[in-house]
């Protein structure tokens, strides 16, 4: 299952907090030169793999299942979940590849190098240019479907604000974007806005003026560094409010 665990004691989702904790744990292991492993278990729905007759008999044999169906060793089956062994993997932190392969051979999982994908984010990765390359590739792929010359400048402004600026937001909510990556992404946006995605065109107005808010005479195309800072500050405000 991609979103939630089968059992939860509250009505809240801890996916975001889990990623922060896990990523900090990896960084702590690296900083202290500790050795460890990350076991990623992929759960999938198992509607076609459940024997309902067997489950009904099992529930009848244990009184606890009648009152608390989410408890007990059969709870994963009651929630129609099973481990997808083909998609599960083991990754090592400060462990040599030879040792990791020996562990994998014994437990039957496949080995994956860090970073690994978790809720759409690279867990255990370094926020460098290569780290942000999937975002850059996604924007290039999206722009290839559009023809800027056939879109009015007002339409390109809407696309820049609603689509191009939204693609990096998920990454920007978790990681500090490097200056060179921010410049590259803003260059893509700037060239698309001035009708020249593949080739640099003459900018009619300085981009720092275009990026100003509407009240300041700009078009409200917020800079990525400013947007990144605002998203990261929200985490600090959230922790203060929850404490």
Automatic annotation (TrEMBL):
Matches recorded under PANTHER family: OS12G0587133 PROTEIN (PTHR33116:SF78), REVERSE TRANSCRIPTASE ZINC-BINDING DOMAIN-CONTAINING PROTEIN-RELATED-RELATED (PTHR33116)
Protein name per Swiss-Prot or TrEMBL: Uncharacterized protein
